[in-house]
Design a protein that fits this description.
By secondary structure, this protein is an alpha/beta fold. It contains 22 helices and 16 strands. It has 3 domains: 2-22 and 148-252, Glucose Oxidase, domain 1 (3-Layer(bba) Sandwich), CATH 3.50.30; 34-141, PtsI, HPr-binding domain (Enzyme I, Chain A, domain 2, Orthogonal Bundle), CATH 1.10.274.10; 267-582, TIM Barrel (Alpha-Beta Barrel), CATH 3.20.20.60. Bound molecules: phosphoenolpyruvate and magnesium ion (MG). Phosphoenolpyruvate (PEP) is lined by residues 186, 293, 295, 334, 430, 451-454, 501-502.
């Protein structure tokens, strides 16, 4: 059975399927006879024991991550709460509720009670009660547990959708590939898959109806094909393709430590998009010139409470220290859109990508914004930290954000706290309005970075997550190149650094014209570093200029994409044998 989707993180995987479908209980009120009561109370007791054992095992597994382990500790407290247990037993014994109905009734009473409270922290307890209830009901029914962190053997993961919190708990060594029914090239599951180097195909409509645990699945995330239960011929064909792909990937990986210099001597900066400060993520520091985009929101996603100023300070400090004299660009909170989390209640909006997102949300939640700015300023005393504001749509946005930063500087000076008075401040260029007036921006910032993921979404008027309109999300659209060229010209004229940190910044084919436009810094997922360096070492400015010139004569995205990809292939074919290692 063959399905098609959007390949968002390259690679080919063949293995057993793991279908991730979180359990959603449908219970309702059911009553039992008096004779059935003892069986239901005994079954409830057994269910409690099983739930406790599961929670204990999870805590043990996450012992090295106290934040996550703490979540399950809190769940254990709820589970063993005497008042709650008594209420459930009362409903079974006195009112003859079936065990599952009693569990649902009591837990929902508490969920509703917490949901109505004014205090945000109390409201968050609601999700905990829901979680424990779901666990109990699943065990009561005897349904299999589904949790990505519990995946036992290396598998191809199938899901309708994956939320950032799901992917955050993913064991990257066991995920052979990710296949989802929703999402697109720039959704956050795609970004995480790329940074972990896991092949991923998103927007595979209908695949969940056909996938089953344990069947053999092929995920070809080069062409975007998923094959379930391949026949012998298909199996052999994909195995051969996988071997060839892996051989080429091995060749590309030789470029990881290479100095990214074009054949005619232009040094290009190859930086990393960072989503955490785990040792695995910081390992790429060895091969990169800095962090061009530190997505600080990932720090807010792991816990149920907002990170304090000190917690943030420690994380930012760890990142700058890992990079020494190389620059780390910290992006202030970018939530809203597809990024939601438990530690902050966000308004329900019909069009969240056009709503109260990123900087706009920070202007609403000024205490959260200032806490982050203070933590960043304090970390700037320990290395080469720069600050970048996302989703700037007007000069007022920029003035306002800078005014908050100045307020924090004044506070810290008053408290005698050390920070870098000259910490560079820049913005992301991802709203077309701001990309159209780059000279005004360049005069006000120390640097800027183009976020092609959102720039494309807003320029093309296409929801970056909606697979039904994925064909309209054309990052090779001529308008993308001309808008970026317009921005680059103004920054070159002003002598201010401009980089690209959206997913196009890690696309070797797109880099050819960008380099010709004068852009010399690119920031990308770890898995793109080697392919990008490989391309750079094959390029001359003359060649890049020639490609850009040809692009000017092209009218459509497919034409541009085809031309850039064939140019890249041609350059790689002429590859030099000699690889010079820098470090
Ligand atoms: C972008 O929009 O290109 C970007 C880098 O930001 P994010 O993908 O986190 O929105
Ligand atoms: Mg963005």
């Amino acid at each position: 059975m063959v399905f098609k989707g959007i390949p968002v993180s390259e690679g080919i995987a063949i293995g057993k399927a793991f279908v991730y479908a979180p359990f959603k209980p449908k219970i309702g009120e059911r009553f039992i006879s008096a004779e059935e009561v003892p069986a239901h109370t005994a079954r409830f007791d057994m269910t409690l024991k099983k739930a406790r054992a599961e929670l204990a095992a999870l805590q043990e597994k996450l012992a090295e991550d106290p934040d996550k382990a703490g979540i399950f500790e809190a769940h254990e407290d709820i589970l063993t709460d005497i008042a709650l247990v008594d209420e459930i037993l009362e409903l079974i014994n006195d009112k003859h509720y079936a065990g599952e109905s009693a569990i649902e009734t009591v837990y929902e009473k508490y969920e509703n009670m917490f949901a109505e409270m004014d205090d945000d922290l109390m409201k968050e307890r609601c999700a905990d009660f829901n979680d424990v209830k779901t666990r109990l009901l699943r065990l009561w029914i005897g349904a299999a547990g589904k949790n990505l962190s519990e995946m036992e053997e290396p598998s191809v993961i199938f899901a309708h959708d994956l939320f950032p919190s799901d992917t955050a708990t993913l064991d990257r060594n066991k995920a052979l590939a990710i296949v989802t029914e929703t999402g697109g090239n720039t959704s956050h599951s795609a970004i995480i898959a790329r940074s972990y180097g896991i092949p991923a195909i998103l927007g595979v409509s209908g695949v969940m109806g056909a996938a089953a645990d344990g069947i053999i699945a092929v995920a070809d995330a080069v062409e975007g094909t998923v094959v379930l239960r391949p026949d012998a011929g298909e199996f052999t064909r994909y195995r051969e393709k996988q071997d060839a792909y892996d051989r080429d990937r091995k060749e590309t990986l030789k470029y990881l430590g290479v100095r990214p210099v074009t054949l005619d001597g232009l040094r290009i900066e190859v930086c990393l998009n960072l989503g955490s400060v785990s040792d695995e993520d910081l390992a790429a520091a060895e091969f990169t010139d800095g962090v061009g985009l530190f997505r600080s929101e990932f720090l807010f996603m792991s816990g149920k409470e907002l990170p304090s100023e000190n917690q943030q300070f420690q994380v930012y400090k760890k990142a700058v220290e890992a990079y020494g004299s190389r620059q780390v660009i910290l992006r202030t909170l970018d939530i809203g859109g597809d990024k939601k989390f438990e530690s902050m209640e966000l308004p329900e909006e019909d069009n969240p990508f056009l709503g109260c997102r990123a900087l706009r949300l920070c202007f609403e939640k000024t205490d959260v914004f200032k806490t982050q700015l203070r933590a960043a300023l304090r970390a700037s005393a320990f290395g080469n930290l720069a600050l970048m504001f996302p989703m700037v749509g007007s000069m007022e946005d920029l003035y306002r954000a800078k005014a908050f930063l100045e307020e924090c500087r004044v506070e810290l000076r008053g408290e005698g706290c050390a920070f870098n008075e000259k910490m560079p401040v820049g913005i992301m260029i991802e709203i077309p309005a701001i990309a159209l007036m780059p000279d005004l921006v360049a005069a006000e910032v120390d640097f800027a970075s183009i976020g092609t993921n959102d720039l494309c979404q807003y320029l093309m008027a296409v929801d970056r997550l909606n697979p039904d309109v994925a064909m309209y999300y054309q990052n090779y659209h001529p308008a993308m190149f001309w808008l970026i060229n317009h921005t680059a010209e103004a920054f070159t004229k002003a002598g201010k650094p401009l980089s690209i940190c959206g997913e196009m910044g890690g696309d070797p084919a797109a880099l050819i014209p960008f380099i010709a436009m004068g852009i010399k810094k690119f920031s990308m997922s770890a898995s793109c570093v080697a392919p990008v360096k490989r391309l750079i070492t094959r390029l001359t400015m003359e060649e890049a200029g020639h490609v850009l010139g040809r692009l000017r004569m092209m009218n459509t995205a497919p034409e541009i994409e085809g031309y850039l990809k064939s140019s890249m292939k041609r350059l790689l074919k002429e590859e030099a044998v000699c690889i010079q290692s820098e470090r």
